[in-house]
Design brief:
The structure is a single chain. Helix 2 packs antiparallel against helix 5. The protein starts with a helix and ends with a strand. By secondary structure, it is an alpha+beta fold. It has a two-stranded antiparallel sheet with strand order 1-2. Strands 3-4 form a two-stranded antiparallel sheet. The longest helix is centred in the last third of the chain and has 14 residues. The relative contact order is 0.12. The protein folds into 2 domains: about 35 residues; about 60 residues, no CATH class. A hairpin with a 6-residue loop joins strand 1 and strand 2. It has 5 helices and 4 strands. About 40% of the residues lie in helices and about 10% in strands. It is rod-shaped and about 105 Å long. Bound molecules: zinc ion. Zinc ion binds next to loops.
Length: about 120
């Protein structure tokens, strides 16, 4: 008889005033959104706290710590191969030592003495 049933199931678009389905989210006439879409967004906790701990390693950019005794014994036993030079990262000098037998043994002996006088650890750059 009356149309209450239908009215209950409908609502009016707040934009264009047309009758639309009660559960409609978008108006079928003008297309505008009449309901806030409840998107179940997971709460994304954006943890932007900077975890980059600047651990200040006491290290001069290029200088590398070397163990005095490792270098010394490398020099003592393999100095004519420039082993201690390779250990210090000085490959060029190491190769030179190989071909010159530790700078004709002079570099070898001098390096042994120099290494003995160094602090432990010592730093090469
Ligand atoms: Zn509308």
């Amino acid at each position: 008889m009356d149309r209450n049933e239908e009215i209950r199931e409908t609502k009016f678009c707040k934009e264009c005033g047309e009758k639309i389905d009660r559960n409609a989210v978008f108006c079928t006439h003008c297309g505008c959104m009449v309901e806030n879409i409840q998107v179940q967004q997971p709460q994304i906790v954006i943890n932007n706290s900077n975890q980059n701990q600047n651990v200040n390693v006491p290290m001069a950019s290029a200088a590398k710590a070397r163990n005095k005794w490792v270098a010394f014994f490398l020099c003592l036993f393999l100095g004519y191969f420039g082993a201690h030079k390779f250990y210090e990262g000085k490959a060029g000098m190491g190769i030179l030592y190989i071909f010159t037998f530790g700078l004709f043994a002079i570099g070898w002996i001098v390096d042994c003495i120099v290494l003995l006088c160094k602090k432990n650890p010592y730093y090469v750059d």
